[in-house]
Amino acid sequence: MATVDLQQQHNNLINFLYEEGFLDEQYTQLEQLQDESSPRFVEEVLSLFFDDSLKLLHNIETTLNKEPVDYRKLDAHLHHFKGSSSSVGAQRVKNVCITFRAFCQEKKKNGCLQCLQQVKQEYYLLKNKFEDLFQIERQILRAGGTIGGTN
Amino acid sequence: MEEEDYSSDMDDEILSSMWPENLGKESDKQFNIDKPAADQDMLDEVSIAEEPSIVDFKRLMELTNFSEKGSSQLSYLVKQWEHKQANAFRLLNEQIDILNKQKQEAQLKELEILEEHMFEADNFVGDKRPISILQDDYAFGDATPIFNKDISICKNKWQIDVEHDSIEYWKERAKKMEKLLDESLQRENKLQEKLQENLRVLAKETSPVEELSQILRRADNFLHFILQNAPVVIGHQDKELRYRFIYNHFPSLQEEDIIGRTDVEIFTGAGVKESQDFKAEVLQRGLPAKREITFETELFGTKTFLIYVEPVFSKTGETIGVNYMGMDITEQVAKREKLAKLREEIAVRNAMETELNKTIHITEQTMRAKQMLATMSHEIRSPLTGVLGMAEMLAHTELNEEQQQLLGVMISSGDLVLQLINDILDLSKVESGAMTLEATNFRPREVVRHVLQTAAASLQKELTLEGLVTEEVPSEVIGDVLRIRQILTNLISNAIKFTHEGKVGITLRVTSQPSFAENQKDRKDCGDLSKYSKTDTNTQQNDTSLSQNGGLGGDRSSNDVSCVIDSKQCRDTQNRMAESETRPLSSIDGDEYLDIDSDDEEKIVWLHCDVYDSGIGIPEKALPALFKKYMQVSTDHARKYGGTGLGLAICKQLVELMGGRLTVTSKEHCGSTFSFVVPCKVPKKRTCDEMDNDLLYDMPLSECEARSDSTAEDDKRAYFQFKPRTLGSLFSSGDAAPRSKVLSAGKIDSNHTTKMNGIHTGYMFPTGESTPSSNQNLSLNHDVDKQHSELGSDYLTGIENVNKAVNDCPSNDDYQHLQITHSPMTTEKDTTMRHSQESQDLKLSYLAHENQGKMQKTNQKPPENISDARQMQSRPKILLVEDDQVIVMVTQSMMKRLGHSPDVVSNGAEAVQAVKTNNYDLVLMDVCMPVMDGLEATRLIRKCELSGNWDASEVARACKADCLMSIHMNGQTSPFPRKRVPIIAMTANALAEGIDECYANGMDSFIAKPVTLQKLKETLCQYIPG
Asked: Does A54 touch chain B (CB under 8 A)?
């Protein structure tokens, strides 16, 4: 019973993330890639993403705080960030990245700073959600259940 | 009345006007003469030339006698004379009266005196009373107004002093009286004399003829005075228009030449007849008239006269002639005309100005609108790509059939909008001049093949696509390949759109410089060839070595199968080409190199390209509007076929931007041919080697034969054909399996499909490949059915293994050519399937060979080998180049899911290294990477593949040295060209420009990021058989 509840909770959370636009189809791709041979694939990828992104965020912040701002460098970071976020289906992060890049290309520092805050917020929000999610998943696995798809 | 007037005026006005009174009132008489005293002096001073006027006096007499005017004038003169006469007569009478009176008085006085004397005698005795006799005053003055000055009248009073009544006194008195009487008598005589004199004078003065002629002379003088400098001609002509009188200030003819003649008789030329007719008209109508006549006669050249003609009437009211007056107004007319012209010009200028202002206004508005459009388009594009991307992603989720269909419509509509926007942007770019052309080396054959391939991939109809590039087309030219490709793609997709059966094709040939371009030549010449010559030196070494080794090369990818050309025809008819080949290449030294360089410098070829179809054709009336924006043949067509209507306009603009021309010929229901000519530069020296490579590239089959033959003649004629396949078997939307068995035409993916047709297709229509024939063209039939393709894939695997095996064995040489070819056919198009066994043999006959130019036929190896290979089932080697760890992880996982385990490197430089050391079957390359991006890496790989020289230094130069781990591969590297590895871009920039960039850099296809399993699978299926 507990696993069913947990699974329900898991599904609800995932659905919430989709509905709120945190995630997109790309995440479904990741889920599809997860099978017996790599049961923790999603978690692994996302952990990598979160670690990677943390560094990137740091780099972005450093770049942005250094005068004069090296917009080319910033753009490269953002491109990277955008690429990885889109690859894991972190839609909202990706969208902010797009806006961020637009500001970056126009060399508008204020907009960039604003976007930085935003992207950080999105990042931590997502990270928190996933921490919860993984927590649940671990519980399910521990309880002997399986992590079903979102559908 | 008049009598009175004249009598009252008599004193101060002696002469009155000789002009008829009926001409007007006193105030506006046209001809006024001053008092004689004053004028006389004036006229004395002026000399009057009498010659100009020529008078026929007899006629004048006649005139005066017969014409009304003349008689009235005469009668007036007579009347006036009579007046004067009467006046004078009256005066004289008065004077006589006065004189008589005086005489009477004088006599009376005498009588009185005598009486007095007698009375005195009577009264001498008696009466002494004094009597005063002359009591009244005599005043003559009043009665004689004129002569009173001359007559002195005694006013003394005779007073008789009675007191002095004495004899002396009376005697005295008598004496005095006597004296007075004498005086009186004297006076009387004087007066009488004067009277006589006056009478005499009067008689003299009053002769009428004299007076008349005097008046006339005066008038005449005045007239002469006035007219002497006036540029007028005055004349009188009789009923027959013969001159009777003419006054001309500038006479050019003698009297006898004019008088008695008509205008026409006097001079000839333009205007003479007109004036004659005009006079005749006036004569006939009896009304005066004015007219401007321009004469052009020998006599006085071109002159314009204002002519006044009035008729002269006889007393009976008949016209008997005309008076005419002409004034030379040539200058005025000229001035007037000039003025008119000026005015006209001003009007025209004003109109033009208005027009210009209007145009400026319109242009401004248009510009603004265009700007707006461009901006808007750009703004729309970004979100639209988002929408489309999402829709496409949605298409990859699980959907039911209806949803799929709806989504399909949504995506195709979206794509259309995107296409439209891109078109608009392109167009506004060209129009605003922002579009710049790039000059890059490219291979026309490849471009044609590529365009056809792409078109074939998205083909949804049973059409044959064919391409022919004639041999004289250089293998490599310099031009803007992106734009040329764009034009070709546009034209081809257009052709396909309007063709329902038959074929669509491209013919590319070299043409002589078109006439329209002769002037442009200079402009085109000044391109930057220097850029290319630099790289020449780099590759020189490689190229030479390549040639030395017999130019071994081969097809590097399964794709290239599609354009195999009979190697027997691997000849270039171009002398230059032949030269470079027959020349002992090892001996090429700097001098010769330079020599060749200078020979080939700045050579321009005009490429003529026809894109023909057997479609619906274009009605003749629609042709002119064809290249206009937003134009389609009819609204009906627009509905039926869709499209933005911008494609052709863009093509035309692009072609023109390149200095070429785009034309169209069409016959309704039979098809259309769009032709364009564009100038392209031929690269210098390098061309030869490049051409070698190109040959190797495009015609890998039996390469060695060609080499061993080493014939002088080479033929680079290339023929490609893509035949339609049955639709059913091509469906590969969900499952890539069928396709994996088809030897793919390659370089196709769903996104590109989308681009071509505006309709998203997850499936495609792999098509056959090129089919040259035994004569000139080697036909390569790739038109296999499922069964065959299965076999084919088996071969491939087998071949792959052989290939590998050979490669792994260093002694067995560096070079392997994987030929996935099918039976050479005897004829081009009717390629029928051969037995699989046969094709198998043939194929295998080309499997491998050695590098020394010797052919080592391996066709004895085969069947077992193949079966072995099938058992081994070794996985294709894939390289993933990606810097983002997350993406690497995801992609890797997907690969794994698909049964592959790719090698991973994280930047372009590493990728080059990896490709160098390993024979990969496929490379997935991120475009945007640190150190060296995907485009550059691809370029390098391609270059190295061609040259066979994986020279580390070059790679090192191209990228930062520190990121290359180990580059000392010279020993390892094969100096020979090798198989072309398919490189697939992974890019987030899935817009047309980004994709084109990928292709231009030598990539074969692309996957739009984020990579999905489906996309990956589809792409891999195209390139990795099995």
From this structure: no
- Percent pLDDT > 70 in chain B is 55
* Cβ–Cβ below 8 Å for A86 and B930: no
Nearest-CA distance A9 → chain B (Å) = 23
Residue B584: is it exposed, middle or buried by C-beta count within 10 angstroms (0-12/13-18/19+)?
exposed
Q: Verify whether the Cβ–Cβ distance B886 to A38 is below 8 Å.
A: no
Q: Which residues in B125-156 are b (16+ Cβ under 10 Å) and which e?
A: eeeeeeeeeeeeeeebeeebeebeeebeeeee
A79 touches B: beta carbon within 8 Å: yes
Would you say residue B600 has pLDDT above 80? no
Q: Measure A21 CA to nearest chain B CA, in Å.
A: 12
**Sole residue written with tokens 């680079």:** B716
State the smallest CA–CA distance between residue B400 and chain A in angstroms.
Answer: 15
CB of B794 closer than 8 Å to CB of B868: no
Does B762 or B335 have the greater pLDDT score? Answer: B335
Residue entry with tokens 């009252």: B8
- The structure's pTM equals 0.32
Report DSSP state, residue B79: H
Residue B712's contacts (CB-CB under 8 Å, 6 or more residues apart) are B571, B578, B582
**Token pair in block for residue B531:** 């850029």
Region A82-87: mean pLDDT is 88
Q: For residue B896, what is the nearest residue in chain A, using CA coordinates? A: A33
Q: What is the mean pLDDT of residues A90-101?
A: 89
**CB within 8 Å of B557: residues ≥ 6 apart:** B746, B979, B980, B981, B982, B1004
Could you identify the residue written with the tokens 């171009």?
B574
CB distance B300 to B252 below 8 Å:
yes
Task: Tell me what ipTM this predicted complex has.
Answer: 0.83
Q: Write the DSSP assignment of B726-787 as a string of letters.
A: -SGGG--SS--HHHHHS----S--HHHHHHHHSS--SS---------BSSS---B-----HH
CA distance A66 to chain B (A): 21
Of A24, A33, A49, the CB nearest to B886: A49
User: Whats the size of chain A, residue-wise?
Assistant: 151
Is it true that the peptide bond before B52 is cis, omega within 30 degrees of 0? no
| pLDDT band at residue B32 using 50, 70 and 90 as cut-offs | low
Q: What is the pLDDT of residues B767-825, one digit of tens each?
A: 333 333 333 333 333 333 334 444 444 444 444 444 444 444 443 333 333 333 333 33
Of B394, B884, B928, the CB nearest to A84: B884
Is B843 within 8 Å of B819 (Cβ atoms)? yes
pLDDT over 70 (residue B939) = yes
pLDDT score of B54: 60
Instruction: Say whether residue A105 is in contact with chain B using an 8 A CB cutoff.
Output: no
pLDDT digits (tens, 9 = 90+) for B388-424: 877 877 887 788 888 888 888 888 788 778 777 777 7
For an interface test with A, give the residue of B890, B896, B907, B987 to mutate (most A CBs within 10 A): B890
Contact yes or no for A29 and B897 at CB 8 A: no
Pick B948 or B162 by higher pLDDT. B948
> Chain A partners of B900 at a C-beta cutoff of 8 Å?
none
- pLDDT value, residue B141: 42
Angle of helix B862-872 relative to helix B786-808, nearest 10 degrees? 90
